[in-house]
Design goal:
This protein is mainly α and 157 residues long. The chain contains seven helices and no strands. Helix 3 runs antiparallel to helix 4 and helix 5 packs antiparallel against helix 6. The chain is elongated.
C-alpha cells in the first residue's frame, strides 16, 4: 500500500522548513558576507579567478542567474547552462525532502550527475573558449601572478 501524503503546507512541514532555515542561516550569512567582501575588495566573486586567474566550472553562474532574473534565458544559458538544471535540482530536493518526507537520495544522485557534467562542460569550454570568450577569460591580475612577480624581482626578499 502507498503511504498517503498530508497536504503540502501542513503545520508539521512548515515547522520542519523553518527549523531547517534556522540551521542554515549562519551559513547563508557567512556566504553573503564572503561574496560581498570579495566583490568589494577584489571586484570578483570566484576564488579560483582571484587566486589563479582562471575560471572554475561554476564561472558564469552568477551572471546566468542575473540574466535569468532579467528574463534573458538565452544569455543565461550562454554564460552557464547548468543554472537551470541546478535550480531544478533545488526543486527536486524540496519535493523529496518536504513533500515525500524522505532523505533526498534522488537529489544527491541528480546533483552528482550535474557536477560531473559541469566539469566535462568546463573542460570543453576551456579547450575551445579560454582565454578569449567570457566567462572563460584569463584574469592577469591574480594573486599567484602577483606572488611570482614579487619573487622574481631582484632583492624581493
Amino acid at each position: 500500500m502507498k503511504k498517503k501524503h498530508s497536504p503540502i503546507l501542513c503545520k508539521k512541514r512548515i515547522k520542519h522548513l523553518i527549523s531547517d532555515v534556522r540551521h542554515c542561516l549562519p551559513g547563508i550569512l557567512l556566504c553573503a558576507i564572503f561574496l560581498s567582501g570579495m566583490t568589494a575588495a577584489a571586484g570578483k566573486v570566484c576564488p579560483a579567478r582571484l587566486l589563479l586567474g582562471i575560471p572554475c566550472p561554476g564561472c558564469g553562474l552568477t551572471r546566468a542567474a542575473v540574466l535569468l532574473l532579467k528574463g534573458d534565458i538565452h544569455g543565461s544559458l550562454l554564460h552557464n547552462p547548468f543554472l537551470l538544471p541546478l535550480l531544478a535540482g533545488g526543486l527536486l530536493f524540496l519535493y523529496e525532502h518536504y513533500v515525500l518526507e524522505r532523505k533526498a537520495r534522488l537529489f544527491s544522485v541528480y546533483i552528482a550527475v550535474c557536477i560531473f557534467l559541469m566539469v566535462v562542460f568546463y573542460i570543453i569550454r576551456m579547450k575551445y573558449w579560454f582565454p578569449d570568450r567570457p566567462p572563460m577569460i584569463y584574469e592577469p591580475r591574480n594573486l599567484l601572478h602577483l606572488l611570482f612577480t614579487v619573487l622574481k624581482s631582484p632583492g624581493s626578499l
